[in-house]
Specification:
Oligomer: single chain
Largest sheet: 5 strands, antiparallel
CATH superfamily of the largest domain: Zinc/RING finger domain, C3HC4 (zinc finger)
Structural class: alpha+beta
Number of domains: 3
Number of strands: 25
Shape: elongated
Strand content: 15-25%
Distance between the termini: 127 Å
């Protein structure tokens, strides 16, 4: 109280004391509060004490048990949060000054203005309030019934009540599942969370992905990939939602074109009806195929005629090339002679330039003497004019040589172009002449030892023959040979294979390919001791299925150890390599292959 009396005085002292009071009040309002007391604020009026609560422990502001007691100078105690509210209202609405009895030394200054005690009307200021720890200890040790009584019969001290409520089985709690607002006693909460809450998380019975129980039905109806749904094309099958795309490739109700559309069939209907159409109209489809085949044969005849015309053009171009070569040859010889002449003229020109330089010097000397050297000067001028004429002739000759060189280059380029076209036409003609349609191939491999050496060095891994066929509309295939061996036979055997290639009539042929194939290396001695092996295709092998149209050919199949290289080099009773040439024969058994 003495401190309070010292704050009363002149205006400057009053101002300073008012600022100090505000600072202390601010620090007091921010003072610490026990966590258990702040948690009991919401239920302090519903607390039931075992013994009757003493009057001094009742807050005169709120009428409940005092929490975090604060004592004023008048001796009464209040709840911290109640006193903060009371002083806050007083600061927002200043109350009129009150007169005091003459026994008081001075009237209260503005720094001591505040609220009044509800009990005795004493002035309450922040500077005179302090925390009553003795009272706090007594209140915290009071015994109370659990707020969930009579269901819960527990009796605890006041400061332990919140700790008890955190584990009390009768405390009412809200369900923690998102979207659920149900309040339950703690003892029933777990069963509700796991068994009865409509907002709990459960795995989808189909795809086993976790979803909220209330959303699982919508998930099954709209997006679950494992739920069986009816085909969108209204067929009788039910398909998992994730397999709808694959099912559409087999669904009998999907609209498709007839397989023979490329041959002219215009039927388009559901897959099942198109399949029935294909099975029941084989004759009409065969007629379409035959018409297409006839067109192809006409095209083949046209191509053969074109080949003959190209052959005639090649012969004509060969004659033309020969004539050009004969014309170019003397030009080349003439160009060589002209080069020699130009070289000689250049050397002569160099000598004449040197002579001209000397003559000019002599002219200068003679010019100085004038008289006696005039005759020599005329001779020198004549000589100079002759040199100039020779130089002009040499330059004209050089220009003529340049024109000849340009003409020679033009003729050489034209000759190279004709040679390239001639070689391309020869290769095309050879391929057409070598193509067979009887299921047989005789393959002549020249430069055997040179090719074998190149293959051993990795420059040319294998050789492929020209294609041959089992008929005009039959299977298309070719032979492959590894002169230095392949796989198990590398560097010890010659490897020989057969490979199926995409053909124009593959959709009409039976698959897989089942015809017996014989591979032979022919004896050139005349004794007919050919080396021959045969095999029957494995229907399960990918090598004998229908080649894909986008691929080059199937995987080759045959013998990696067809014949040892030692027998090719030093045969006993046969000659397989003669004049650096090897002959390979392929024969396909044509039994059972009918014409389309």
């Amino acid at each position: 109280m003495a401190t309070a009396d010292m704050k009363v005085g002149g205006s400057e002292e009053s101002s300073r004391s008012e600022e100090s009071s505000r600072s202390e009040e601010s620090r007091w309002r921010l003072g610490p509060t026990s966590s258990w007391e702040s948690e009991l604020v919401s239920i302090q009026h519903s607390l039931k004490f075992v013994l009757k609560l003493k009057e001094e422990f009742v807050c005169p502001i709120c009428g409940g048990v005092v929490l975090n007691p604060q004592q004023n100078s008048c001796g009464h105690i209040y709840c911290l949060h109640c006193l903060q509210g009371l002083l806050g209202e007083a600061s927002r609405s200043p109350s009129p000054s009150r007169s005091r009895s003459p026994s008081r030394s001075r009237s209260p200054s503005p720094s001591r203005s505040g609220s009044v005690c509800p009990v005795d009307g004493a002035l309450i200021t922040a500077a005179e309030v302090f925390q009553d720890n003795c009272c706090k200890r007594e209140i915290s040790s009071l015994e109370v019934y659990c707020t969930n009584s009579p269901a819960c019969a527990s009796v605890v001290t006041l400061h332990c009540l919140q700790e008890h409520l955190r584990s009390c089985q009768y405390e009412r709690l809200q369900c923690s599942n998102p979207g659920c607002r149900v309040l339950l006693q703690r003892r029933h909460l777990q069963e509700h969370l796991t068994d009865s809450c409509p907002h709990r998380i459960e795995p989808c019975p189909h795809c086993r992905q976790p979803y909220q129980l209330s959303l699982i039905k919508d998930h099954e109806q709209s997006s679950c990939p494992e739920v069986e749904v009816e085909c969108p094309n209204r067929c009788s099958q039910k398909v998992r939602r994730c397999m709808l795309t694959d099912h559409s490739n087999l669904c009998p109700e999907v609209q498709i074109d007839c397989f023979y559309k490329k041959y002219g069939c215009s039927v388009q209907d559901k897959r099942a009806k198109v399949k029935l159409h294909e099975d029941t109209t084989v004759n009409q489809h065969m007629l379409l195929v035959l018409r297409s085949n006839t067109k192809l044969e006409k095209q083949m005849e046209a191509l053969q005629e074109e080949v003959l015309l190209r052959q005639q053009e090649i012969q004509e171009e060969s004659f033309l090339v020969g004539g050009l070569e004969r014309e170019v040859r003397p030009l080349v010889q003439q160009s060589s002679r002209h080069e020699q002449i130009v070289s000689t003229a250049q050397r002569s020109l160099t000598r004449q330039k040197d002579l001209l330089s000397r003559v000019q010097l002599e002219v200068q000397e003679v010019s100085q003497g004038f008289g006696p050297g005039l005759e020599d000067l005329d001779q020198l001028r004549s000589s100079l004019n002759a040199v100039i004429q020779q130089v002009s002739a040499a330059e004209a000759l050089r220009d003529h040589l340049g024109a000849l060189e340009e003409n020679f280059k033009r003729q050489s380029g034209l000759l190279d172009l004709h040679n390239t076209q001639l070689n391309r036409n020869k290769e095309h003609l050879q391929e057409l002449e070598a193509t067979s349609y009887d299921g047989k191939l005789i393959w002549k491999i020249q430069d055997f030892w040179k090719r074998k050496e190149a293959e051993a060095k990795g420059q040319q891994p294998c050789l492929s023959s020209v294609p041959f066929h089992t008929g005009r509309c039959g299977y298309k295939m070719a032979a492959k040979v590894y002169l230095n061996g392949d796989g198990e036979g590398r560097e010890s055997h010659l490897s020989l294979y057969i490979v199926l290639m995409p053909g124009d009539f593959d959709p009409l042929l039976p698959w897989p390919f089942r015809q017996t194939v014989s591979l032979s290396v022919l004896d050139q001695s005349g004794a007919a001791n050919h080396r021959t092996f045969s095999f029957r295709p494995d229907p399960k092998s990918n090598s004998f299925q229908q080649p894909a149209t986008e691929s080059i050919s199937n995987v080759a199949s045959g013998f990696s150890c067809f014949i040892p290289l030692s027998q090719l080099e030093t045969p006993q009773n046969a000659v397989y390599v003669k004049d650096d040439t090897l002959f390979v024969k392929v024969k396909v058994d044509m039994a059972g292959l009918g014409d389309l």
